[in-house]
Amino acid sequence: MTVGLALEIALAAVVLSVAVWTVAARDTFAAVGGFVAYGLLLTLVWMRLGAPDVALTEAAIGSGLTGAMLLAASARLRASEAAVAAERPGGIVRGLAALLSVVVAAALVASVLFLPDPAPTLAPAAAENAAATTLGNPVTNVLMAFRAMDTMLEKVVVLLALVGVWSLAPDRFWGGRPGPRHEADPNGVLAFLARLLPPVGIVVGIYILWVSADLPGGAFQGGAILAAMWLLVMMAGLTDAPQVSGRSLRLLLLAGPVVFLLVGLGGLALGEAFLAYPVAYAKPLILAIEFAMLLTIAVTLGLLVAGPPERESGS
Amino acid sequence: MKLVLDIMTVVAVSAGAFFFLAGTVGLLRFPDALTRLHALTKADNLGLGLVVLGLLPQAGSLRDGFKLVCVWLLVLIAGATVSQLIAYAARRDGPVP
């Protein structure tokens, strides 16, 4: 048995045990801790599978930002947690829940076991036409050129999720600022970190977008890092969350999808099809879309974690 | 020359792994939040520092080595800040049974 294989078996065993532990944990906060650890371990699994793009996304979004959102949710639920834990649902409800879980698990198992062998793939076609965009990273090629439509719709979905979060706000706070005003010692460690880290984080976030042309990276991963820097500054009390009714904020939220749509419509007007890039301008067009998307993703993810508006716009 | 570098890697990474092991044992065995934090920071600072030191001779270029050192520095900053915050919260909320 090689060292690599032993490592993979150990990794798979740890991932499965952390997953079981996360589901079984009674305490919400502990379960969230388990979920974050699970996400980071999954990152290692993706690396072992040779998918660094997916690994980056898993670490930034799956583990980092989702973990932060779940932490905020568990803090909100803490007051009512004991009451909820004391309630035991009836036998029929539990039976139905168990049945549903078994059916879903069985469907997943069946779909994995009955995959055709070899699995249908478009990878050779994508690799053959990679030269058309002058991008070296096949994942970016697929996301930004061959399946650009999916990527555009994905951005719209994230925007809709943000509207969903905002719609949880009470009417009187609509258009106000999300979450509580964070107070921290202006000379404390958190404020120190919030001054020290963002310059580094902003450079890394933009770098991850820039290298995605040839190496693993992308707008989503870079945007997640920028969002984290913004959240850090907000949590340290160095700046307040913006009013969600602000015009410049709304423009930033729309920048990515709007630029994407304009380029797409331009392809329709000048070229062959919606989102068809003229080959000579493929790279600059993709870069323009990606930078607009980076801003939109950073603002959207930051506001998703910040939560629904909870304060009057003035306070 | 390559042998010397390889030996240095093995020694430093093993020492780093030892600190991670000791830190984990401390995390599991120590009685309260502050002492557990003390154990944890050893793994973060010294353990990762030694692993990075051991990997430096294997880095392909100066740039890769610089990236490794940056990773260590970022973890140092993050680890130091978070342990301060956890310690502050632990002191404010009193001893956890």
Comma- or semicolon-separated keywords:
heterodimer; A: 315 residues; mainly alpha; two-stranded antiparallel sheet; B: 97 residues; 86% helix
Task: Provide a concise account of the structure shown.
Helices cover 71% and strands 2% of the residues of chain A.
Notes on the structure:
The complex is a heterodimer of chains A (315) and B (97). Chain A is mainly alpha-helical. Chain A is 71% helix and 2% strand. Chain A starts with a helix and ends with a strand. Chain B has one domain (2-93). Chain B has helices at 2-29, 33-55, 62-93. Chain A binds chain B through residues 189-190, 192-193, 196-197, 200, and chain B through 74, 77-78, 80-81, 84-85.
Write the topology of this structure.
The complex is a heterodimer of chains A (315) and B (97).
Chain A: H1 3-24, H2 28-48, H3 52-86, H4 91-113, H5 123-128, H6 138-146, H7 148-166, E1 177-178, H8 189-211, H9 219-235, H10 247-270, H11 282-306, E2 309-311
Antiparallel strand pairs in A: 1-2
Chain B: H1 2-29, H2 33-55, H3 62-93
The spatial strand order of the largest sheet of chain A comes to: 1-2
* H-E string of chain B: HHH
Kindly report the oligomeric state of this protein. Answer: heterodimer
**In the residues of chain A, how many domains can be counted?**
3
- The low-pLDDT segments of chain A are none
How many individual helices of chain A?
Answer: 11
The value of Rg of chain A in angstroms is 22 Å
Largest interface: A-B, 7 and 7 residues
Q: What fraction of the residues of chain A are assigned to beta strands by DSSP?
A: under 5%
Roughly what is the average pLDDT of chain B, rounded to an integer? 87
Mean pLDDT across the residues of chain A is 86
In N-to-C order, the SSE pattern of chain A is HHHHHHHEHHHHE
Distance between the termini of chain B: 54 Å
Helical content band of chain B: over 70%
The strand count of chain B comes to 0
Please count the helical segments of chain B: 3
Q: Helix/strand-derived class of chain A?
A: mainly alpha
